[in-house]
Amino acid sequence: MNRPNTVNIRYGLVGANGKMGVEIQSYFSSLGDLCVLRKDRGVLEEIERPQVIIDFSSPDAVFETVELCRKYSCGLVIGTTALTEEHFSRLKELSEHVPVVQSYNFSTGIAILKRIIKEYASYFEDWDAAMVEIHHNQKKDAPSGTAKMLKQALGREIPISSIRVGGIFGEHTLIFSNSGETVEITHRALSRRAFVIGVRNAALFVLGKEKGFFSYDDVLESAQAR
């Protein structure tokens, strides 16, 4: 999953001036990809038709992003957090015409961790469980979208402690405990590159689809099938 694909991508980027936007442009350009549409607050540069639009901005921008995808009849990779039911409704409407990959976390490690949790959740049914998630102090939503995904994979309600401190990219720890022992499972992102690699995997996945609503789990399964 981490080996770069030789296909070059013409992509649009919403949230181009944000930290993830800058990292995406740096990594994609190192592989020969070309950003042909850039959008941020007060900025819209349209050079040519993108093959896919990538959105790592804010919930306020989602509806405009959907309209851009309709305008260019191109797919969407969206990692914006704190989405509402209205956002999901619009994204699923869009997916009836073009491919949409939505995830709160594009880390391959998190996708693998979700599978592990689903497979072994039944073994911890009688154990107490909790989660601690830590992110940088500029992250607005709490708990994180990733924490919600991991809780959903576990299949039961658990307390989640959210810590916002410093410049931590993302750390999630699941804790299982009974009266005699404790098991902890931790995923720690070392840099934004962990997510950007997954974003490019998702963009390549979109290029091979006609339409549909997908998660990063679908991207991972597709890569394993090749």
Automatic annotation (TrEMBL):
GO cellular component, one term: cytosol
Binding site for (S)-2,3,4,5-tetrahydrodipicolinate: 136, 145-146
Residue sites binding NAD(+) per the record: 15-20, 79-81, 103-106
Occurrences of domain Dihydrodipicolinate reductase N-terminal (ranges): 44-106
Enzyme class: oxidoreductase
Keyword Ion transport recorded: no
Pathway the protein acts in: Amino-acid biosynthesis; L-lysine biosynthesis via DAP pathway; (S)-tetrahydrodipicolinate from L-aspartate: step 4/4
Family annotation (Pfam families): DapB_C (PF05173), DapB_N (PF01113)
Gene3D superfamilies assigned: Dihydrodipicolinate Reductase, domain 2 (3.30.360.10), NAD(P)-binding Rossmann-like Domain (3.40.50.720)
List of catalytic residues: 135 (proton donor/acceptor), 139 (proton donor)
Domain of life: Bacteria
Entry's family note: Belongs to the DapB family.
Matches recorded under PANTHER family: 4-HYDROXY-TETRAHYDRODIPICOLINATE REDUCTASE 1, CHLOROPLASTIC-RELATED (PTHR20836:SF0), DIHYDRODIPICOLINATE REDUCTASE (PTHR20836)
Protein name, entry field: 4-hydroxy-tetrahydrodipicolinate reductase
Protein's organism: Fervidobacterium pennivorans
Gene: dapB
